[in-house]
Write a structure and sequence with these properties.
Chain lengths: 350, 318
């Protein structure tokens, strides 16, 4: 029975897990500190008590966690494994890239690995370089995996259920700064939707700003501020970076003629580059070269003042949006994206 | 029976670490330090004893995120550590490392690690280099009980064994891995026993006795330097604080923390010294002197300028 509850982001995840464990007896939930302690962020609280042996603590053995999820998934379970920080998935990346992603393809569909990896990523004040990375591009690069970054309480619930219901490996990337940052009304018990699909968070006419993950809250802050200056930005939350909802992006860019992509991950090699390439390939006419906003080439320093200098702030995002919109001269024509450097009024933009 | 002077030196080292951590607790509560901080209160005897046994002009220590104590025992100045935790330009890594990932190579401390178990293969590599460079270096990898279940640690141990590398694997067994008891995560909780499967010696030692740790590490280092290969030492200890600042420790059964407090190394060594004839006044003078040193270092670090954001992109590549 659908109902609405006032929940934190962490409680929304917990509600999705509870529903999955209740409705799908083949689900398992495991990871470090996930069972008896209820998770280092309290996300899995109460689930061990309610569902017993299907919810359990593991040793600090990410290869066993992820490989165990692959094997159990092939044999009919539907594991939901937690990797406490996305950074820690790297010690067991093999199990996702060489193992999980290949199961269905190589067996020509005879086998599948319906597993969900819940993790969280990103910088928070004081976090060290090994606890601060945004790694979605690594996962999204791998055909066979699906990747989402729920950034609202509702999506924390909805996307996780879509992931669990999906018959392929899905990586759900949460963000620890969201877990306990206030409550919102969340609709529970609705239909579980298939994976994919972007969401317009703020409709606008002047520029399309595509974003995902917790950074979108800064993007929305920037967009709200710019509204006062007469810039009407459309903010789209990609939600899924694999599969990317390109149709939604293209439809918006066709209207606005401008594209800014903002993510916390490093700009170079990031999913933002993929979006720009896809828009260019689609031949959508742009009024101005598209812009990527992300973290520059650097490791992430622990000192909050240093990290703040590299992780995109609302100011940096607002500046990029403004430049993109203001770059249009009064007599400017729509330009084809392959002709960027032929557009004089865009010279000097960076 | 070690001389009183040596025990007093151990006490001073342990007190410096404790006093540092207590000041860190204050700075964190005041909001001067932000983010996750893992204190080592209760485990000071391990760092003190091990570093007393090593030659830090050539040996290399690889601790974990719970590494303030190691760094101090290696001889890094408290001021540069406070400054690091406070994000100051004068920090030992200019604020880039922070509490959980700082490095003090000038003091034989080659980096905390916030990836559980990751230091073990790197220590094996430092030992591998020693087999080619004639330095006589011994590498010491320190990690927790929980890290024994990490694949990298297993690989490092077997690698070190087959190449007879001069590395000491030192487990700080404080009985917990974050919020989970190690006893629930292994069938054999005598972790040192794994050494025999790799083909090198393992021993369980009293990790709350700095002199016992010193002797065990000295013997392991002598052995490693002679070319006989690695050793696994399991130092039994307990943290008397949470896994991180803010951990309410609900997972600890009743009486567990009290027992840990009764056994913690500083009180224990103090009682031993008094029994050996040291006076309370003498010990009070020592701890007060160290407390002044720590308070002064903290105050100086607080007054230092913040790390300069304009330098943040430097040193990514050669
Ligand atoms: C590869 C990896 N997995 C998980 C973590 C999260 N984590 C940080 S500390 C810790 C517990 C480690 O326990 P132990 O090895 O006993 O060391 P202790 O903290 O007790 O000193 C865990 C699971 C991590 N940092 N790295
Ligand atoms: Mg431990």
């Amino acid at each position: 029975m659908p109902e609405t509850k006032n929940l934190s982001y962490a409680e929304s995840v917990n509600a999705a897990l509870r529903r999955a464990l209740a409705e799908r007896p083949e689900t398992l939930l495991f990871g470090e500190d996930v069972g008896a302690p209820g998770g280092v962020f309290g996300v899995t609280k109460g689930l061990r008590k309610e569902f017993g042996e299907r919810v359990f603590d593991t040793p600090i053995s990410e290869s066993a966690i992820l490989g165990g999820a692959v094997g159990a998934a092939v044999f009919g379970r539907r594991p939901i494994a937690e990797i406490m920080w996305a950074d820690f998935s790297l010690v067991a990346f093999d199990q996702l890239v060489n193992q999980a992603a290949n199961v269905r393809y190589v067996s020509r569909g005879a086998l599948s690995a319906p597993l969900t990896v819940r993790t969280q990523q990103g910088n928070a004040p004081g976090a060290c370089a090994q606890h601060s990375q945004s790694l979605e591009a690594l996962f999204a690069h791998v055909p066979g995996l699906r990747v989402c970054l729920p950034a609202t309480h509702q999506d924390a619930y909805d996307l996780l259920l879509s992931a669990i219901w999906c018959d392929d490996p899905v990586i759900v990337i949460e963000n620890r700064t969201l877990y306990h940052a206030g409550k919102q009304e969340v609709r529970l018990g609705g239909e579980v939707r298939p994976v994919g699909g972007a969401a317009v968070r703020r409709p606008g006419r002047d520029v399309t700003v595509l974003t995902w993950g917790a950074l979108q809250h800064r993007v929305l802050e920037a967009a709200d501020r710019l509204a006062a200056d007469g810039i009407d930005a459309e903010v789209i939350d990609a939600r899924w970076v694999r599969p990317l909802d390109l149709d939604a992006v293209l439809a918006s860019v066709r209207r606005t003629g401008r594209l800014v992509v903002a993510h916390e991950a490093h700009t170079v090699g990031g999913v933002g580059g993929e979006v720009l390439a896809a828009v260019a390939e689609a031949g959508v006419p742009l009024r101005c070269p598209p812009v990527r906003v992300g973290t520059p080439d650097t490791r992430i320093p622990a000192a909050p003042g240093l990290a703040a200098a590299v992780i995109p702030s609302a100011e940096v995002i607002a500046e990029a949006i403004t430049k993109s919109v203001r770059a249009q001269g009064p007599s400017s024509k729509l330009v084809h994206p392959t002709g960027f450097d032929l557009v004089p009024w865009c010279a000097g933009m960076s | 029976m070690p001389e009183t002077a040596a025990l007093l030196a151990h006490l001073e080292s342990m007190w410096r670490i404790r006093s540092f951590e207590e000041e860190v607790t204050r700075l964190r509560a005041a909001g001067d330090i932000v983010g996750s901080v893992h204190l080592c209160n209760g485990q000071e005897a391990i760092y003190t004893g091990a570093c007393a046994a090593l030659d830090l002009t050539r040996d290399a220590v690889f601790p974990t995120y719970r590494g303030h104590g190691w760094t101090l025992a290696c001889g890094a100045p408290p001021h540069t550590l406070f400054a690091e935790l406070l994000g100051r330009a004068t920090g030992i890594n200019g604020g880039r490392g922070g509490s959980a990932y700082l490095t003090a190579p000038g003091h034989g401390m080659y980096g905390e690690n916030s990836i559980v178990g990751a230091g073990a293969p790197i220590a094996a590599g430092a030992a591998l280099a020693a087999t080619f460079d004639g330095s006589g270096r011994v590498a010491l990898a320190a990690f927790g009980d929980g890290a024994m279940n990490q694949g990298a640690v297993h690989e490092a141990m077997n690698f070190a064994a087959v190449r007879s590398l001069p590395v000491i694997f030192l487990v700080e067994n404080n009985h917990y891995s974050e919020l989970t008891p190690i006893a629930d995560m292994v069938r054999v909780d005598r972790l040192f026993k794994r050494a025999s499967a790799y083909g090198f010696p393992g021993a369980r030692i009293d990790g709350n006795d700095p002199e016992a740790v010193r002797q065990a590490v000295a013997e392991a280092a002598r052995r490693a330097r002679s070319g006989a290969g690695p050793v696994l030492l399991e130092a039994m200890t307990q943290r008397i604080v949470g896994h991180y600042i803010g951990d309410a420790q609900h997972y600890r059964p009743a009486g567990d923390l009290d027992a840990a407090l009764a056994a913690e190394p500083i009180g224990r060594l103090t009682r031993e010294l008094l029994a050996l004839g040291a006076t309370q006044a003498e010990l009070d003078e020592l701890t007060a002197r160290v407390d002044r040193e720590i308070a002064d270092a903290s105050a100086r670090a607080l007054a230092d300028p913040l790390a300069d954001p304009s330098t943040v992109l430097e040193h990514l590549y050669a």
